[in-house]
Design brief:
Distance between the termini: 21 Å
Helix content: 25-40%
Shape: globular
Order of helices and strands: EHEHHEEHEEEEHEEEEEHHHEEEEEHHH
Strand content: 25-35%
Number of helices: 11
Largest sheet: 8 strands, mixed
Radius of gyration: 21 Å
Length: 390
Amino acid sequence: MYDVVVVGARCAGAATAMLLARMGHDVVMVDKARLPSDTLSTHGLIRGGVVQLSRWGLLDKVLASGAPAVTHVRFDLEGEPKVRRIKPRAGVDNLVAPRRQVLDSLLADAAVEAGAELRTGLTATDVMRAKDGRIIGVTARSAAGEQIELPARMVVGADGRGSRMAQYVNAETLEHFTSPCAVFYTYVTDLEPDTYQFHIAPQTFAGVFPTNDGQACVWLIRPTPLLEPIRTAGSARSAAFVEQLELLVPNLGHQVRAGRITTRLRGAAELPNYRRQAYGPGWALVGDAGYHRDPITGHGITDAFRDAELLATAIDQGLRDSTTEAAALSSYQESRDELAREIFGLTRALTEFPAPSRFVELQLQLSEALEDEADRLASFPNLEAIDPAA
């Protein structure tokens, strides 16, 4: 009998498992993927995410992985660029955008170092229920077809946007809309390693997140029909991507043309935006399993880190005193929803692509909301690594 089974061992799941293990609980993470491995993500962390990594004692490891410290942000409105240095706030003065195979593995390793168990190549197939309906574990299947039971006092679904755990526990969808936008991204060499870039033009939002190995994630978001020249280009998609950047945001397009594209183009269209019921008797959801928003406001990793800490704190309280479980988990959802409410609304407004001047106003409102959130996260007590034997 584990204290907690966490289904999903990437950003949200690994962070939750790490924090619970640091609190002294017996935790197992399961994931159908073999780590390290990549996943669909533009992976740019804003200040709140960097604050969390710093508080958890992991920021130095991220920087040591080769993900550069980003010290400047460039805003380009219809060809008029402005570059600003990132000012110190909430205890940090830089941003970072590590590749997912780097970040996810680093977090999973930190969870294991704290005492959690990691079992990859396992696919959760259902939940186990007590006679009163409470979730008391999960069933899983190994890559070899072996059927496994993992009983636990609490089950956490951290299995992403297509969460099966949310289906197994019948989590109610509290709010939902479908984005009318699509995003494409790739990796390019020889771009500024210390600068996030955001380029805005009519019905166009594009940007750059410098990352590991001297590369940068370059992305483009537009209403889905306007990206047909890329979507229909077949094997010439990368060339069409560069052509569209040069046409729509020339300053960025010329940079990409001068660099070298190192990977195939990836993307997604008309993604669901939702907020689900986040808990019930014996279960909880975290990360994209419980809350997801369009890449136009992005930064889902920062959301995952925030919610992982809120949830770990609630579960810790419930495990130590079962009479407080329902109230603690309810508080987790209330805090998540309070912090997400304004940004969820801004996401809907931005996906409608108002005129560039209004788009910038909404972006500034988003930036201030995210900075306020970073201040709040910085006020949480530190939960750095501890000796599991202690």
